Amino acid sequence: MKAMSSLPTVIRNLKDSCPHCIRQVIASLGSKQLDHREDSRSESSKMPAKGPTALQSQGTCAPEREQVSHLCPRTIFALACDPGTPAAVLARLAMDEDQSVVERVAENSSADRYILATLAWHPAKEVRMAVAENINTPYNALVMLAQDTCPDVRFRLAERYNISFELLEFLADDENPYVRWRARTTLGRLNGKQQADLAYAV
Question: Residue 46, class by beta-carbon neighbours within 10 Å (0-12 exposed, 13-18 middle, 19+ buried)?
Fold first, then answer.
């Protein structure tokens, strides 16, 4: 029971409905391996090689790659959604054949910079849209997404209030009128808030 407390919350919630998968998760992702999360995040500061297959060369998730593939779809989906899932497991799930699983990884607040920078090259626009919205996405990946061929991806980026003014100003001149309007609206609200903060300070 003590070991169970170190597992992702959503997996603890599934322990009654999917016991076979939970036994595999406990065996392969016990408390000792969960401690590797910080080591994985320290490696995430490095930008990946170009393209969506970059994660395949990452050695940190090799043991988990085989174990996760044997889990049932429901547990795999739950792991992809859970912010308590170790980064090494998320790296494996980022290569899953099910696009909905990859989308959940791209949305996950615990997905590290390495994973998100790699998924920024994903062929599915829905995945790239999720990456554009994730607060952990590195700046270099955001710059690339600001030039994405899909206007929906650029629109998601233009909606964000926590990216640089430089990127928003770039999107404010976008060729797509909806992206252009959204970026200018975001900039206008940020400028208004900035002026209000200054007035309050004075």
Answer: exposed
Question: Strand, coil or helix: what is 171?
Answer: helix
* For the chain, domain boundaries: 3-138, 146-202
Please give the structure tokens belonging to residue 187: 């900039």
Q: DSSP per residue over 106-134, as a string?
A: HH-TT--HHHHHHHTT-S-HHHHHHHHH-
Q: pLDDT by residue (tens digit) across 180-195?
A: 999 999 999 988 765 4
Read off the pTM.
Answer: 0.70
Q: How far apart are CA 155 and CA 146, in angstroms?
A: 9
pLDDT digits 0-9 by tens, 79-92:
999 999 988 899 99
Tell me which residue has tokens 């300070």. 201
The helix-helix angle for 151-158 and 125-133 (nearest 10°) equals: 10
80: CB partners within 8 A, 6+ apart? 90, 93, 96, 101, 102, 104, 105, 108
In 3-state terms, the chain is what percent helix, strand and coil (to 5)? 65, 0, 35
